[in-house]
Design a protein that fits this description.
The complex is a heterodimer. Chain A is mainly alpha-helical. Chain A has a 3-stranded mixed β-sheet. In chain A, helix 3 runs antiparallel to helix 10 and helix 11 runs antiparallel to helix 15. The radius of gyration of chain A is 31 Å and the shape is globular. By secondary structure, chain B is an all-alpha fold. Chain B contains 3 helices and no strands. The N and C termini of chain B lie far apart (47 Å). Classes of the chains: A mainly alpha, B mainly alpha. At the A-B interface, helix 25 of A face helix 1 of B.
Chain lengths: 646, 97
């Protein structure tokens, strides 16, 4: 289905870090220091960090961002040929011929991720100062946030797959801690566990992939693997590609491991923003793009990536249409947008740069909208039901305006950032396979519908507020990050100016041979915009023009019910994994209790029973003992006589 | 030779029947001594017939052991009698199931 493009898989061949690049380790170390200070130091200092903890926690990622910026400009100052820098920190471990170093790889791909993670991450930290103001455990929250950012930075900076694995697990841990941050709520604790366990399924893929890399190449360094990739058999590469895809499905919430993402909304809203924009879900896309030297030699694996991505982008969009919880609509849209990125990544060298481009613009507008949703919840006494919103554009003008920028970006309104990035992916998809391209276009239309529905229900229509709720604008510590992110949502498309991002990423992902789409690119853009317009119009007609009931109507079509139930993803998991797993566990426990314990206890019972019967012989009468002694002696004597006689 | 062995058998039988039937600890004790001495008699008789001293030496050992046994045994019987006011071996039946 997909052919290997010309000039694929450039080598990873970094130079040793010198000059300003020796600061690279600080990018990770600073947030890690914050996490240590707040999580270990905080309890040791017995609450002395309570008043300043959030400032420490917010300052360190900002410093990290400043260093990332310096490094980025230093990288831009180099020729595009030697924009790969390796910082060898120390030998992580060595066993026989196996040597794994703690290496950091800084190249255009990790440079962009560094800016996104530390930049958007810092804004979310600053926003959290206001959002978590009344939470008594705010320092700990910032400690977890710092840990999250540090783990994600390890993931994108690691120079070998084992380092990626370290960051990968760190991200999983931090997300678990943050989703379950309000662990006194049963639903939050359950959601955290669910996220952790579903991610674990994906982690199996990554750990097996790491093992297979060891077995095939004898190392997990990107450098060696990329130079030896052409010599490995296609079967091995396909297996590696599928294992990496499984890993990516877990972290990036792709079908069939998507179910944790909607439940993860139980965490505080800044956490959702962090998970959906800067960290966590982008890790899967990063993994696929970083492993381009694997996927370029595994066309079948790429086909599977494309199928998974296409299914997910529609799946998420359909869920988004029916949910009334504002955060869950956004979560569904994340799933769908990550589907677009995976689609781009699955298209191979023609799609990699656009996957990363969409990832960046999505990072801007999704962080913007999640923080905006947090701001709305802040003003509505933590109510998340959009049926209780309405007419908020007057009460919260700044939140409304910034949210609107994110909204226009995600639906792909012309010249906003999402317009450029989504368009490019659809165009690349159409070039390679018209069917996938058409499905991606339909997905864009559905996006237009559900995002407009959210917009109308929240900011327009009539006010349906609960009694005693007085919506108000959030403090400026929350609105300023919103404004920055809104500006980025509008202007993010500039990254594509003069194909900058494509050329910038070329040393990492290679260049595609130029292939024109079946119909002119301009026409594709026009068609996509028209489809989106239809979606928006449908939302306007169905939501804005009608009365929105305060309770969700129950007499709805099967399709709506299915979408509300997340297309029965949880039920499928229940039937395929949870129930059989439960049966297996019950069976094993039965076998242990009845079988293994039965043998042991049965032996004990038998010995005890025999003993209690034989005990009765001990009458305590000396004369009876003497009698038995005598009888025994007589028997022995008779036996001796019998033997002698014979 | 035969009369010695017959006498020894009779004495042993009397002794063992006494041990099995009598309740008084002192009598039981005496019967035990009777059995030991019947064995001594047999030993000495066989020793005489075989013409060596092994049996006689063994008889001396048995006597020494019997003397020691009497010392310990009588002390136990005395103590039991003091605490329980009875010398019946059936009464001292606490060590049962």
């Amino acid at each position: 289905m997909f052919v290997l493009a010309e000039g694929a898989a450039p080598l990873v061949d970094p130079a040793s870090a010198d000059g300003v690049f020796s600061l690279l380790w600080l990018v990770i170390a600073l947030p890690l220091l914050g996490a240590l200070l707040l999580l270990v130091g905080g309890p040791l200092l017995k609450g002395r960090l309570d008043r300043s903890g959030h400032l420490i926690g917010a300052l360190l990622p900002v410093l990290s961002f400043v260093i990332s910026l310096i490094l980025f400009f230093a990288l831009l100052g180099r020729d595009s040929g030697d924009r790969q820098v390796n910082q060898h920190l120390y030998t992580w471990f060595q066993a026989g011929g196996l040597k794994v170093g703690a290496d950091l790889l800084y190249d255009p791909l990790s440079a962009l991720f560094l800016l996104l993670i530390t930049g958007v991450g810092s804004l979310i930290h600053i926003y959290s100062i206001g959002y978590m103001e009344h939470d008594p455990r705010r320092p700990r929250f910032f400690g977890y946030l710092n840990l999250f950012v540090a783990a994600m930075l390890i993931l994108v900076l690691a120079g070998n797959y084992l380092g990626v694995f370290l960051g990968w697990e760190g991200v999983g841990l931090a997300s678990y801690l943050l989703i379950g941050f309000w662990q006194h709520k049963h639903s939050a604790a359950a959601a955290a566990k669910k996220a952790f366990i579903v991610n674990r399924v994906g982690d199996i893929g990554l750990s097996l992939a790491v093992a297979l890399f060891f077995a095939t190449f004898g190392t997990t360094d990107f450098t060696t693997i990329s130079s030896h990739a052409s010599r490995a058999s296609e079967g091995t590469m396909t297996a590696l590609g599928l294992l990496l895809l499984l890993a990516a499905c877990g972290k990036s919430a792709q079908v069939p491991l998507q179910s944790w993402l909607l439940d993860a909304m139980e965490g505080p809203t800044p956490v959702s923003a962090l998970i959906h924009a800067a960290t966590m879900v982008t890790a899967g896309v990063y993994l696929v793009v970083r492993s381009n030297f694997v996927f370029d030699y595994a066309p079948h694996a790429r086909t599977v990536v494309v199928v998974v991505a296409t299914v997910t982008l529609l799946y998420g969009a359909i869920i988004g249409c029916a949910k009334d919880d504002i955060k869950k609509v956004l979560a569904g849209s994340t799933m769908s947008q990550i589907g677009y990125m995976m689609l781009g990544a699955g298209l191979g060298v023609a799609g990699y740069p656009f996957a990363i481009f969409h990832l960046l613009t999505h990072g801007f507008f999704k962080a913007n909208m999640f923080l905006g949703a947090g701001s709305v919840m802040h003003g509505m006494d933590d109510d998340v039901d959009m049926r209780h919103y309405g007419a908020l554009q007057k009460a919260m003008p700044i939140t409304f305006l910034t949210f609107a920028m994110g909204y226009l970006a995600i639906i792909g309104f012309p010249f906003f950032s999402g317009f450029w990035s989504k368009d490019k992916i659809i165009e690349a998809a159409l070039t390679q396979n018209w069917f996938v391209g058409v499905l991606a276009m339909i997905g864009a239309g559905v996006t237009g519908f559900y995002m407009s529905r959210l917009m109308f229900m929240t900011f327009f229509t009539k006010a349906r507020w609960e009694e005693g709720v007085h919506p108000h604008e959030s403090p400026s510590v929350m609105t300023i990050p919103l404004m920055v992110l809104a500006a980025l949502s509008v202007l993010g498309g500039l990254l594509l100016a003069g194909d900058w991002i494509v050329n910038f990423l070329e040393p990492v992902v290679g260049t595609a041979g130029h292939e024109s789409p079946p119909i002119p690119a301009l026409l594709i853009s026009v068609i996509v915009v028209l489809i989106v317009a239809v979606g928006v119009a449908a939302a306007w007609y169905l939501v804005q023009q009608r009365e929105v009931p305060r309770e969700a109507p129950q007499d709805v079509s099967f399709a709506t019910r299915a979408a509300r139930a997340e297309l029965y993803g949880n039920e499928v998991n229940d039937v395929l994994a949870v129930k059989p797993g439960g049966w297996l566990a019950t069976g094993l426990s039965m076998f242990d209790r009845q079988g293994v314990d039965g043998v042991v206890e049965g032996t004990a019972l038998g010995v005890g029973g025999t003993g209690s019967v034989l005990r009765l012989v001990q009458t305590g009468f000396v004369r009876s003992y003497a009698l038995s002694l005598l009888i025994g002696t007589v028997i022995v004597v008779l036996a001796l006589l019998a033997v002698n006689a014979a | 030779m035969t009369p010695y062995v017959v006498l020894s058998s009779i004495l042993f039988t009397i002794g063992s029947v006494g041990v099995l039937t009598r309740r008084n600890a002192i009598v039981v004790f005496m019967c035990v001594e009777l059995m030991l001495n019947s064995a001594n008699l047999a030993l000495v008789a066989f020793s005489k017939q075989n013409g060596n001293l092994d049996g006689q030496v063994t008889a001396f050992f048995v006597m020494v052991v019997a003397a020691a046994e009497v010392v310990v045994g009588l002390a136990i019987i005395m103590t039991i009698f003091r605490t329980r006011r009875s010398a019946s071996v059936d009464d001292a039946s606490l060590l049962k199931y």
